[in-house]
Amino acid sequence: MDDFPSLVSCQWLAQRLGDPGIAVLDASRHLPAAGRDPRAEYEAAHIPGARFLDLASLTDPASPVPAALPTARQVAARLAALGVAPDAAIVLYDDSAIRSSARAWFALTETGRERVAILDGGLAMWRAQGLPLESGPPAPERAEPAALHAPRRVRSKADMLANLASRAEQVLDARGADRVFGTGEDPVHGGPNGRIPGSMNLPYGDLFAQDGTFRSPQELRAAFEAAGIDLDRPVVTTCGSGVTASVLLFALHLIGKSDAALYDGSWMEWSADPATPKAQGREAQGPEA
To answer: How deeply is 15 buried, as exposed, middle or buried, from its count of CB atoms within 10 A (0-12, 13-18, 19+)?
Structure first.
């Protein structure tokens, strides 16, 4: 599996269920307003052999960033506790409106985990194709922890403030246009709507076809370009809390772009600081704002 893909179809995975070299992880996570319990849903129905990642708890509580990316030690410990061997390939899936498997993909690959894929279309596509499901909690397993490293493609609030002057990295916001350019209250995280000055907008939902699978590489490239992104220059993605920004990062990965990073604090951190400059309203749209 040296050429392990980053995006796999349901049929691809169905043909490999039970392969001891592949670990399947449910990376579902939901916004509080959804009123959903990902663990309960996992235990009610999941892909056979899948383990529950519990992505919502895989954060760094010592970080000042809200719901910060986990440390390498946390990632290694969680995977070991789930019985994922250091040399195993991993397939992530979710059943979430915010496509949370992309957040798990970024957390795992940024700490050095290799051969990590996302199931295209997630659990919804798996169900739609009539593929098997099982219920119940996972069987207890344990593996040796892998040697991982700190994330590298992550930007802090200080980095983003410095970028306002240098504009060395383009900033792309994954939230809906109503939250990015609106002037009322953010309906998801509270606080004001708005954006980091100079940032552009590509709602993460625009990266998917009608059936919930990722659009073709050509269509993804066109979507980024239509949003005003120069694909020859570095990009930092942002959103409300760093989750859907990871969807943009995964899509950039699919088109071969590696000079892309995540502002993990995103709008939750930026908007909460009275000292950070903020842009609001449609008149603020564009890279020169």
So the answer is: exposed
Q: Where are the domains of the chain?
A: 7-128, 154-284
Distance CA 232, CA 234 (A): 7
Specify the CATH superfamily of domain 7-128.
Rhodanese-like domain (3.40.250.10)
Enzyme catalytic residues:
239
| pLDDT per position as a tens digit, 248-263 | 999 999 999 999 999 9
pLDDT tens digits, one per residue of 205-233? 999 999 999 999 999 999 999 999 999 99
User: In the chain, helix, strand, coil percent, each to 5?
Assistant: 35, 15, 55
| Token digits of residue 66 | 């809200």
Same fold, 7-128 and 154-284: yes
User: Residue 2's pLDDT band (boundaries 50, 70, 90)?
Assistant: low
H or E element, residue 79: helix 72-81
Q: Which fold has domain 154-284?
A: Oxidized Rhodanese; domain 1 (3.40.250)
Burial class (CB in 10 A: 0-12, 13-18, 19+), 142: exposed
pLDDT tens-place string over residues 49-79: 999 999 999 999 999 998 999 999 999 999 9
